[in-house]
Structure formats: structure tokens, C-alpha cells
Write a structure and sequence with these properties.
two-stranded antiparallel ribbon; two-stranded antiparallel sheet; 3 helices; 6 strands
Length: 98
């Protein structure tokens, strides 16, 4: 068992973790945007880019799908592998209404 797995095993049922990469991967920087790759696309997603159905609401599922796809694609262009992971329940949870 990985050390971080022990740390999250006690979290409440309502808690969710959106991790920047899988446990066996390295999270990449994104120097062009002066952020980490994951952080950059997480922020864009929360600002509305992840709103797949254009209902002016971003759910955890929409954010996860957006971040996973964008980070994976951009990491591939840098000849890296980075796959964000989601732990927990509540994909339908609303994160942002705008």
C-alpha cells in the first residue's frame, strides 16, 4: 500500500481527491503558462472550460473529464505521461455555478 493511500483511508465519505497524476507518474510543469500542467487546466476548467453541457454549472464529473483529457494530451505533446486521478464518490456534485 502506498503511503498516501493510508492517509486518505480515514477521510469522510463526502471527501473527494483530484490528484495531479497517478501514483507511479511525475506531475509536469507547464513553463509556457507559469504553472503546473494540472493546476493550469484545473483553473481553466473551474472558470468554465469544463462545462461540457453548457448549463453554466460545473460538476465534479465534468471537471475530472476535462482535466484528465487536457492534461493527458498536453503531457503527451511533451513526451510525458500524466493522468490525473479521482478518488471518492460524488461525480454529480456541483462545484461551480456561474
Amino acid at each position: 500500500m502506498l503511503p498516501w493511500a493510508v492517509a486518505i483511508s480515514w477521510t469522510p465519505r463526502s471527501a473527494m481527491v483530484l490528484a495531479a497524476s497517478a501514483g507511479n507518474q511525475v506531475s509536469s510543469g507547464y513553463p509556457v503558462k507559469a504553472h503546473g500542467l494540472f493546476t493550469y487546466f484545473l483553473m481553466l476548467g473551474l472558470q468554465g472550460e469544463a462545462d461540457a453541457d453548457n448549463d453554466r454549472t460545473i460538476t465534479m464529473q465534468e471537471l475530472y473529464i476535462y482535466v484528465r483529457q487536457r492534461v493527458g494530451t498536453e503531457a503527451g505533446l511533451m513526451d510525458r505521461e500524466q493522468t490525473p486521478e479521482l478518488l471518492g464518490n460524488g461525480l454529480g456534485r456541483v462545484l461551480v455555478r456561474y
